[in-house]
Structure formats: C-alpha cells, structure tokens
Amino acid sequence: MTTFADTTFTPPELIRNFCIIAHIDHGKSTLADRMLQLTGVVDARAMRAQYLDRMDIERERGITIKAQNVRLPWQLEGQDVVLHMIDTPGHVDFTYEVSRALEACEGAVLLVDAAQGIEAQTLANLYLAMENDLTIIPVLNKIDLPAADPDKYAKEISHIVGCEPEEVLRVSAKTGFGVEALLDEVVRKVPAPVGASDAPARAMIFDSVYDTYRGVVTYIRVVDGKITPRERIKMMSTGATHEILEVGIVSPEPKPSQGLGVGEVGYLITGVKDVRQSKVGDTVTSERKGATEPLAGYREPRPMVYSGLYPVDGSDYPELREALDKLQLNDAALTYEPETSAALGFGFRCGFLGLLHLEITRDRLEREYGLDLISTAPNVVYRVVMEDGTEHVVTNPSDWPEGKRAEVYEPVTKCTIIAPSDYIGAIMELCQGKRGQLGGMDYLSEDRVELRYTMPLGEIIFDFFDSLKSRTRGYASLDYEESGEQDAELVKVDILLQGETVDAFSAIVHKDYAYAYGTRMATRLRELIPRQQFEVPIQAAIGARVIARETIRAIRKDVLAKCYGGDITRKRKLLEKQKEGKKRMKMVGRVEVPQEAFVAALSTDEPKGKK
Fold first, then answer.
1. Residues carrying CATH 2.40.30.10, the chain
2. Per-residue model confidence as pLDDT tens digits over 150-183
3. In the sheet where 305-311 sits, what is the strand order?
4. Annotated binding site
5. Binding site for GTP: what residues are annotated?
6. Does domain 305-375 have CATH number 3.30.70.870?
7. Cα–Cα distance between 368 and 458 in angstroms, integer?
8. Which CATH number does the domain 12-189 belong to among 3.40.50.300, 3.30.70.2690, 3.30.1300.10, 3.40.50.720?
9. For the chain, what is the mean pLDDT?
10. Residue 5: pLDDT band by 50, 70, 90 thresholds?
C-alpha cells in the first residue's frame, strides 16, 4: 500500500478530508484507534487506547480537548486513496475546535451511541457541519452492547439527517466490526477537495502548537497551489515573512515530505519562536507572486465566562504571562488581559468559552508550566447604561460603576436539553428556578424529548449542569449558544472585612439571590479566616446597605488568671484595661486573609467535575 509521504504530490481526486463528530463517550477516540490499526499507520507494539489524545488530562478524564489530524492510506477497488481524518472534541465548551476542523474538511462522520441516541451537543455540531455544506455519514456505534437498540436510534437519526434508516451504518469501534465498510463509504460519499494547483499558494492555518526545541509548529490545509520546503512564505493578516524549514504530514507522528499540494493537510515549521506570528485562521501564501485575496477565516470566538487567574506566589507573574502566550497558540479561544487586585496582587483576567474550558485551562497551566494558581469566581459580561447615557462593559465586579444606573443588560443563551420524557417536570422546575423561559418542545421519539429554553448565561455557568444531571439520573444532555442580551435587575454584592471591601469576593448577582450569596460567603469566611486578637465583623453589602453579617470572635487572653480571690474591682479593672487594648487594636489592626482561605472560599463556585 502506498503511503505517498516523501514522494510526489497526491492528486486532489484521490484525497478525502473528513472529521468525526460525536458526544463525549460515544466512541470517537476508539473509532479513531481502529482506523489507525486498520490502515497500518501505527504498528501493534506502539498502539495504545485513545492514541490521538496526547494530553494527560484527556487520558485521565476520557475526553478529547484538542482536535487531532492524521493521514491514513486506504485502498478501494484497487485504487490507493489518502484519507485525512480529524478527531474532534465532543463538549460544547470546545465547539470552536470543532468549527475549525469542519473548515478543513469536506465530510463528517456523525457518530452516535446505539445505547443512548443522539445528544444535544452532537446535534449542535451536526448543524454546524450542515451549515458548512459537509457531506454527513451517519453511523451507530457500540452495537455490540446488550443495551443497544440500533433500529430505534437509526430511525431517530434518519429523521434528523434526512436519510433512510437503512442508510445509517452500524459499527462497533471496540471490536472493529463495520469500520472497513465505513472507510469505504467515506471514499465513495465524501467529495474530493477542489482547488487550483497552478494558482498562487493559499493555505489555511487551522491549528498550531509550541515546541520548545523547534518553535511554532503550524498545521495547515492547502486550498490552492503548493507549499514546499525552503520557499519563503507570507502570513496574510500580519504581513510577516518566513522561510519554511520543514513541511510534512502527520501519520500519526510527524513525517517530513517534499511538500503539500491541493487538498492536503499537514504541518510546516519556520523556526519562529514568537507565538504571535502564527494566528489560527490566517492564510499562508508565497512571498513572491503570492495570492492577493485571503481565504475566509474563522469567526473570532467570543468568551462567555470570565475569571481572574493569579499566581499564589507573586514572583511567578512573568511565568504566567509566558505560559498564557504559549497556551493561546494551542487554544485560540482563550483571551486574557493583565489586571490587579488589592487582595491577590498581579494576575490576568481570562475569557473562556465555558466552565469546563476554564477548568481545563487552569489544569494545563498548573501541569504543563508548573504554576500554582488561584482563580476567582467566574462571571459573565454585563453592559451597564447609566442615567446620564454613558455605557460600561463589565467583565469584573470591581469595574461595576458607581452612581445611578438606568439599565443593566446580561447575556442570554438558547439552551437545548434532550432527555427521557419522564423527566420533563423536573427539568421545567429547574429551568424556571433559573429564570428560564420555555421556547418550545419536540418529541424526537416516543420516549425522548427536546426542550428549548432561553436562559441567562449567569445562571448556567455555576451548578446548572450538575443539577440537571442529578434530577434526570444522568440521562439529560445540554447544549447552549449565545443569543443576545436582556434587561435584568442585577446588583453588586461586596464582602467587607472590618469595613474594608475585599475585591476578590465581590460578585454580580440577581437582586432575588443577593441575600443567599451574601449569607453563604459570610458564613464560609467566618470558618476560614483564623481568629485575631480583636473582633472581626464580616459583612455582605449592596452599596451602603448591609444584607448579612457574621463575626469572628476575638482570641482572649485570660487576664484574670493571676487573680485568686481579692476584691471584684481588681478583676473589673483588668478587664476594662483589656477592653481598651482590644478597641485600640481594632482601630489599627488589619485582617490578613491567608491564601488557603481565598482558594477555599472561591472554590464554592468552581466547576464540579467534568460535564
């Protein structure tokens, strides 16, 4: 079987570019493993489960975070074909990874668990693929499971995709049954890439990573012309020019080749160490006689959740900045800007696509770059209109404007929940408690229902997903997308220690939930802050109005220990003296909040495990 690497360019008509879209735990990575084995690009000794999941976090959690591309040789009816497969993440927080993978493909394998049916997040990715005019190949996986019901779910998929139930392929990625037939179907159905081989070179950057020894490694999909080693290229958005040191394919380890032609997917290395030189979505062209029109890039991802990241040790601030620079190259959806906090020192305000994205990013920074971090409670972006007509965009509670506010707008989302019909009542009760409005309801089959709600994003980002799972015994699936904004009665709750505001604990909440937040934080801090020599009041306040209070009692030295008998006035004199000392200490004393207390108090709103 020919592998084409290090030979001539592969004709576009013999190339098939496709990706796999599926929900978490529906078997994407296992199917990718079987394809790697069947095509012989990984020998039996080097094979391991979840081969394309390179990160420790991915392997531990059993989820895909990064889209990975791999080139596979295949043969159909005696004809050698090259398949480029991209394994994509399934979680809604990594939809941006999926959207970039879809741009580099002409077809998508829709993989659905034959025991669970289609899930909300898969549905969202399927619609993305349909918008991009990709050829959809529906596949039912795990048909070897005792609980599998392929006939029922084939009907459900055919109803959504618009095909016949018999056209839905049935495979078992675990045993390898039906995978060969699937690859044959990909070759037959997915169209070959289209492009002009004699036109000026144009290639789309769909991913890039930072290698300590080789600098930035850029992953590209060639649309027109060809990219060869030692030629000079230009990045069309920045105008930066570089010499290509190496061009190659990923099969599944990087292999240098003599170049990439129309429709091919591979990598290039220019030796550049500056991570800002290789922007995802940019067009690469030749420096001499290059293209004038760039390719349509990706729409910039808009962060939906903001959180502050601060190093526990302030001297690690430069390391955190460098780590975020390198991580942003690998994760284009991450945004950040410097900020300072009176309580936590120097850090960064980071924008994420969701809570899992926040959790994974923090985990990667701590593991890959050896940092110790504190993250503040996540919050969303608010727009505040003052009475004098000025507008403020608030991503951090400390930016909340003082003065008279006319209107406050919060972001809202369209939520899609798919669950067994037995749980409709529990789901509706939960959504209404989170200020949700029902937009519609459809039965996908006799016992599965799709509910559509409009809900404030601020209500979803804390514990909504956990509550949904617990009320439906884990059967419900959730997907959400932004859908504008709405006017809301929001207030800023400040936490005061001895009359001084601690900015790290401030939060913007709905008026109805302000008291609950204030009480919870005050009670929690009373348990976490060590007792001082003087009494410390902890207050939660909205503006000048205190809504909750707890008190940390003072540590009292027993000044009466030496009084064994004698007149009561002696004891009273000693107690009065102590009281005066405490009063003076309270005026000059400052409450030091230990780092552990910050971490523990802020973890109340941290994500609780993976979705």
1. 202-286
2. 788 888 878 777 778 787 888 887 787 888 888 8
3. 335-341, 345-352, 305-311, 373-375
4. 25-30, 141-144
5. 25-30, 141-144
6. yes
7. 30
8. 3.40.50.300
9. 76
10. very low
